[in-house]
Specification:
The N terminus is likely disordered. This protein has two domains: about 60 residues, no CATH class; about 200 residues, Uracil-DNA glycosylase-like domain (Uracil-DNA Glycosylase, subunit E), CATH 3.40.470.10. Helix 1 packs across helix 4, helix 2 runs antiparallel to helix 4 and helix 6 packs antiparallel against helix 10. About 50% of the residues lie in helices and about 10% in strands. The protein is an alpha/beta fold and about 325 residues long. The structure holds uracil. Uracil binds next to helix 9.
Length: about 325
């Protein structure tokens, strides 16, 4: 069956995205279109295999691919027109230069995201327990964590393990990296400055810390706050997996690269993973920046808030 032609609004938005991309790349002039390049782009837009046509439902990743292909087409058409545009400068269209603040803002996520990552698809293993049973199971697991000595370095220098805390039937779970000094002292997750910012993020979503559940990828503090090593992550894997299987949240928010890489088993950057919902068993997974990173880069807070709004919209939570 022949697909419907792409609509004008979508083409306009693709072209605008392309122009914005050129601006970000430092290209502030574009050659006037000539008949040949217009025909080439038109042909591309109308081919059956165009990602834009296939992605007429306009998911983020389809837009990303469409923009990339459009960019490739425009690049080759620019290359072939290079001589024309150099010899006739009257054909150059100046593009408005965005103000410095918008140039510093992170690239709109829809331009950089990847296909949704799905790990461990299918339902969580085991039964969906009633609340009381969930609490009993979590307490038992916390006791196993407290006695764990699988990582000789981490268990040798910890004050206490940090299992995680919160509602036993949460809609949202926040998944961090590893305890820091404050957490290691208190045995509770996200208690330091990053924790204070996380609390604000949770409250901005109209939840309290008690409504959600907070846990880390690794339950012991790595020395000098270094990232947990791969074998340390592996050693802790069954603990957080069991926690998720008990909690079965609608949403898991991965805070930073370590938890995102661990849960989604990918090495893609946060910048590439954010901006869409991934999947872990029956939970939807949102990836955003770690609050500690947001404290160092306050400009990025806006992007993190945009990420959280993706979840809020999906969950139909009014803010
Ligand atoms: N950073 C984390 O990732 N987890 C904590 O518990 C505290 C800081």
């Amino acid at each position: 069956m022949e697909p419907d032609p792409p609509d004008a609004a979508m083409i306009r938005s693709q072209v605008t995205a392309l122009a914005e991309h050129f601006q970000r790349s430092g290209i502030h002039t574009l050659p006037q279109p000539n008949e040949q390049s217009v025909a080439k782009i038109k042909n591309w837009l109308e081919t059956t295999h165009s990602p834009l046509v296939e992605g007429i439902a306009a998911t983020d990743d389809h837009q990303h691919h469409a923009q990339k292909s459009q960019l490739d087409t425009a690049r080759s058409s620019n290359a072939s027109n290079h001589k024309d545009s150099r010899t006739d400068s009257s054909k150059l269209n100046p593009l408005p230069v965005p103000p410095p603040s918008s140039r510093q803002a992170p690239t709109p996520s829809r331009l950089r995201t990847v296909d949704a990552v799905q790990t461990d698809t299918g339902p969580y293993p085991g039964p969906d327990l009633p609340d009381e049973q969930r609490k009993i199971q979590l307490d038992g697991l916390a006791a196993s964590v407290a006695g764990c000595t699988k990582c000789s370095v981490l268990s040798g220098c910890r004050n206490t393990t940090v299992f995680g805390e919160g509602h036993v039937r949460p809609r949202v779970v926040f998944f961090g990296e590893a305890p820091g000094a404050e957490e290691d002292r208190l045995g509770r997750p996200f208690m330091g400055k990053a924790g204070q910012l996380l609390t604000k993020m949770i409250e901005a979503c109209k939840f309290s810390r008690e409504d959600v559940y907070i846990l880390n990828t690794v339950k012991c503090r790595p020395p000098n706050n270094r990232n947990p090593e791969l074998d340390e992550r592996q050693n802790c894997r069954s603990f957080y997996q069991s926690q998720f299987s008990i909690l079965r949240p609608d949403y898991i928010v991965c805070l930073g690269a370590v938890s995102a890489h661990e849960l989604l088993q990918t090495k893609l950057s946060v910048g590439r993973l954010r901006g869409k919902l991934h999947k872990f068993h029956q939970s939807k997974v949102l990836v955003t920046y770690h609050p500690a990173y947001l404290l160092r880069e306050p400009n990025v807070k806006k992007a993190a808030w945009q990420d959280l709004q993706i979840m809020l919209r999906d969950a139909k939570i009014q803010i």
